[in-house]
Design a protein that fits this description.
The chain has 157 residues and is of the alpha+beta class. The chain is 38% helix and 16% strand. It has a three-stranded antiparallel β-sheet with strand order 4-3-5. Bound molecules: zinc ion.
């Protein structure tokens, strides 16, 4: 299970307790902007108190969680055979402007611990610890644990 999330607007925590209990799923929202059908500037925010009218699209956070949430996210990257059958020119034509930003969003929603480790990937000590790691390790469960351990060690007196 992923979460809690850190709101991109206020920096406060978005609790996932309601989601875990299968109730009150509307505490978080994913918002983004779209230009000619291409999505960009994805943010995870508190519903209501952190709404921003510059972002015309918003969907409840829980719609992006679990198996169906991953299916929804992947539809931004590939329309799949059903739609592509009628629109083959759309092959390899993701509906997101920035793949790195979008993968960051997927990791935030689907990789346990990533939301807590992601703000440390630019720390010098963390980068030193990750030197020589392959492209997948920093975002794997072992990599995330290593990052969080490294940050925790620095906080010790
Ligand atoms: Zn907020």
């Amino acid at each position: 299970m992923t979460g809690p999330w850190i709101c991109d607007m206020c920096g406060g925590e978005i609790d996932n307790a309601g989601v875990v209990r299968g109730e009150d799923p509307g505490k978080g929202y994913v918002i983004w902007q779209e230009d000619a059908g291409v999505a960009r500037n994805f943010k995870i925010i508190h519903q209501g108190r952190c709404d921003n009218d510059q972002f015309e699209l918003s969907v409840a956070l829980d719609r992006f969680l679990g198996d169906d949430g991953l299916a929804y996210l992947l539809s931004f990257l590939s329309l799949g055979p059903v739609i592509l059958r009628g629109a083959p020119e759309m092959r390899n034509n993701p509906r997101v402007a920035d793949l790195d930003e979008f993968v960051d969003l997927i990791r935030r929603l689907h990789t346990p611990g990533y939301e807590q480790s992601r703000r440390h990937y630019r720390d010098d000590t963390v980068l030193d610890d990750l030197e020589g790691a392959n492209e997948a390790f920093p975002y794997s469960s072992d990599g995330i644990r290593a990052v969080l351990d490294s940050v925790e060690d620095q906080d010790l007196p």
